[in-house]
Design brief:
single chain; mainly alpha; Monooxygenase; two-stranded antiparallel sheet; 21 helices; 71% helix; rod-shaped
Length: 543
C-alpha cells in the first residue's frame, strides 16, 4: 500500500497525459487494497465488541475495594468514592496492529477518490462497530434509571442516590475513558475528538432520551421529585467537566442533554414556593393550637435541598436574586459556573420559603382560631418547629446564620408572643389603677408600701372599685388558666410563653396586691391569690 501510494505521488507530480492510465490503475489498486484493509479492521474490531454488563464491573470493583483499595481508585464526587474494575478494552497485541492499519486506511483515503470528501473510513468503521457495542452495553442501565424513577406516593420525597442515573452516568464515563484510551492509539490527535463523538453518538442519544423521560416524570411529581432534578444536574455537570479535556464535543452533548432537566429545576423553585403557600392556606388546623405536619415537611425539604447546594447555586445564579418568586421569570441562562454570591442567593431562597410558610399559616390561623391564646400558641408552635429544624440542621443553620436572616425569622416569633400576651391583656388591665398624687403626695421611692394607709385614704366608691378589680381579675385569671390547659404547647413554647407572661403579669399583680391587700383584711373575700400563689400558678404554665 505504501509503495502504491508513493508511485501515485510520483506519477501525479509529473502531470503527463501518458501517465493517466497508470494513475487510474494505481488508484484502482489503492482502492482495492484500502477496501481489504477496511474489511480487516472491521473484522478485528468485532472480535472485541460483545456487549458487557457495566454493573458487573462497578459492583465487583466496589466489593473488592477492601482488598485492593490502592489498585482501582475511581472518581470522587458528592456521592463519595466509588471503586471500579477497569472496563474491558481491546487487548494490547491486536490494538498495536490496529494502529498501523488505521493509519494505512487514512493515508489511502487522503490520496484516493475520497480525498476531497474529508472522510476517514477507519474512523467511520470504528464508530460503526464500537458505537452499537456501547449502546447495547448501557441499555440495561438506562432501563434501570427509568424504573427507579417511578415510586409509590407513600415513599415520600426523593432520597438522594436512590435512582439509577448515578450508576448509569458512572458507566458512561468509564466507557468514555476506555474508548479515549483506545482512540488515542489509533488516530492522530486532531481526529481523536471527532472519533470519540462519532463513536458515542448513539449512546449519547440514548442517554439524552433517558434524561428527557425522567424529566417528564419529575415535572409530573415536582414537589417530591425536584430533588432528583438537582441530583441529575450535579452528576451530569461534574461528569461533563471531567471529560472536557478528552472530548469537548461530548461535553457539549451532555450539556444539551441536561437542558430540559435544568429548566425543570429552575421552574421548580417558584413551584415549591407557590405550592407551600397553597398547602398552608388550606391545611386543616387542630383546635388545640398545635402545629401541623406541613411545617416539618417543608423544613425537611429545605434541609434536603442543602445537599444540592452546587446545582442549586447555579440555578439561583441564573435566575437572579428573588426571581424565583415569579413563575414567568425571564431571566436568561447563565453559565454553569457558580458565582461568589450563590450562598447569599440560597439563603434568600430558604428565607422566602420559610416566610411563605409562616405567613400563610398565620393567615390560616387567624381565620380558624377564635381566641388569641390559641392563635398565639399555634404561631409559637410553628416558629418553634422551624427554629428547631434550623438548629438540628448544620447546613440550614449555616445559611441562616447572618444577622439579617435571624432578624427576619425572629419577627414572626415576636408576633406570635405578642398575640399570646394580647389574650391576657384584659386580665392585666384589672391591675391598673389611677393614683392622684395631689391628694396623697408622691409615692414612696423606697419601695415600702403602706396598704392600710392607702386603703384608708380611699373613698367608699374607690374601695368598691378596687374590690371589683380583684374580683374581675380572679375571674379573668381563672378563665385564662382554664383556656390554657387544653392547648398543646411544644416544650420550648411552654417555657418561653410562661416566662414572658410571668414577666408581664407578676410585677403588675405584686404592685396592685401590695397597695390594696388591706382591702380584704385577710378574709379571702376579694383576694383569691397572694403573691406567692400567683407566682406558682404562672410558673406552672411555663413547666
Amino acid at each position: 500500500m505504501k509503495r502504491v501510494e508513493k508511485a501515485l505521488v510520483d506519477l501525479n507530480t509529473t502531470n503527463l497525459k501518458s501517465n493517466q492510465n497508470a494513475i487510474a490503475d494505481f488508484n484502482s489498486l489503492l482502492s482495492t487494497g484500502s477496501t481489504q484493509l477496511q474489511d480487516m479492521l472491521r473484522s478485528e474490531l468485532q472480535q472485541n465488541a460483545t456487549p458487557i454488563e457495566p454493573l458487573h464491573y462497578l459492583t465487583k470493583g466496589i466489593a473488592c475495594n477492601m482488598f485492593h483499595l490502592s489498585n482501582h481508585i475511581g472518581h470522587t464526587n458528592n456521592y463519595g468514592i466509588y471503586i471500579e474494575l477497569p472496563f474491558p478494552s481491546i487487548p494490547e497485541e491486536p490494538l498495536s496492529q490496529l494502529g498501523p492499519l488505521c493509519a494505512a486506511i487514512s493515508s489511502a483515503c487522503a490520496l484516493g477518490p475520497q480525498r476531497n470528501k474529508g472522510e476517514n473510513p477507519a474512523m467511520k468503521i470504528y464508530a460503526e462497530v464500537r458505537g452499537p457495542y456501547l449502546t447495547s452495553s448501557l441499555q440495561n442501565l438506562s432501563i434501570a434509571s427509568l424504573n427507579t424513577v417511578k415510586r409509590r406516593p407513600t415513599d415520600g420525597p426523593y432520597k438522594q442516590g436512590t435512582n439509577g442515573i448515578g450508576i448509569y452516568s458512572n458507566a458512561l464515563e468509564a466507557f468514555v475513558n476506555t474508548e479515549y484510551d483506545i482512540i488515542s492509539q489509533l488516530f492522530p490527535a486532531d481526529q481523536q475528538g471527532l472519533a470519540l463523538q462519532a463513536t458515542f453518538l448513539s449512546a449519547m442519544a440514548e442517554y439524552s432520551k433517558t434524561l428527557r423521560e425522567m424529566n417528564q416524570y419529575i415535572r409530573q411529581n415536582l414537589m417530591t421529585d425536584c430533588f432528583l432534578a438537582f441530583e441529575i444536574i450535579e452528576i451530569v455537570t461534574a461528569m461533563s467537566y471531567r471529560i472536557d479535556s478528552k472530548a469537548a464535543e461530548l461535553k457539549s452533548l451532555l450539556i444539551e442533554a441536561l437542558r430540559p432537566v435544568r429548566e425543570t429545576a429552575k421552574s421548580s423553585l417558584s413551584e415549591l414556593l407557590e405550592e407551600t403557600k397553597r398547602r398552608a392556606a388550606n391545611v386543616p388546623l387542630p383546635p388545640d393550637g398545635g402545629s401541623v405536619p406541613l411545617v416539618e415537611e417543608v423544613m425537611n425539604s429545605l434541609a434536603t435541598l442543602t445537599g444540592y447546594s452546587g446545582p442549586l447555586a447555579s440555578i439561583l445564579t441564573s435566575l437572579g436574586d428573588g426571581n424565583w418568586r415569579s413563575k414567568s421569570s425571564t431571566a436568561g441562562t447563565a453559565p454553569l459556573d457558580v458565582g461568589p454570591d450563590s450562598g447569599t442567593l440560597f439563603s434568600h431562597f430558604i428565607l422566602d420559603m420559610i416566610e411563605a410558610l409562616m405567613t400563610s399559616l398565620e393567615a390560616r390561623g387567624r381565620a380558624f382560631h377564635r381566641t388569641k391564646a390559641a392563635l398565639g400558641v399555634f404561631l409559637s408552635n410553628v416558629f418553634c418547629i422551624v427554629d428547631r429544624s434550623i438548629r438540628q440542621s448544620p447546613e440550614l443553620a449555616r445559611y441562616l446564620g447572618a444577622p439579617d436572616s435571624i432578624a427576619r425569622i425572629d419577627t414572626f416569633r415576636k408576633r406570635a408572643t405578642s398575640t399570646y400576651l394580647d389574650a391576657w391583656k384584659e386580665t392585666s388591665q384589672y391591675l391598673l389603677d389611677v393614683q392622684y398624687t395631689s391628694r396623697a403626695g408622691r409615692p414612696s421611692s423606697t419601695g415600702a408600701v403602706d396598704s392600710s394607709a392607702i386603703v384608708k385614704s380611699l373613698s367608699s366608691k374607690d374601695k368598691d372599685a378596687i374590690k371589683d378589680k380583684f374580683k374581675s381579675f380572679n375571674a379573668s385569671f381563672d378563665e385564662m388558666l382554664a383556656r390554657h390547659k387544653p392547648l398543646h404547647l411544644e416544650r420550648e413554647v411552654r417555657s418561653v410563653l410562661g416566662r414572658e407572661l410571668q414577666a408581664v403579669l407578676e410585677p403588675l399583680y405584686a404592685r396592685f396586691y401590695d397597695r390594696y391587700v388591706e382591702i380584704d383584711k385577710g378574709r379571702g373575700k376579694y383576694i383569691k391569690y397572694d403573691k406567692s400563689n400567683l407566682s406558682v400558678q404562672l410558673a406552672q404554665l411555663a413547666s
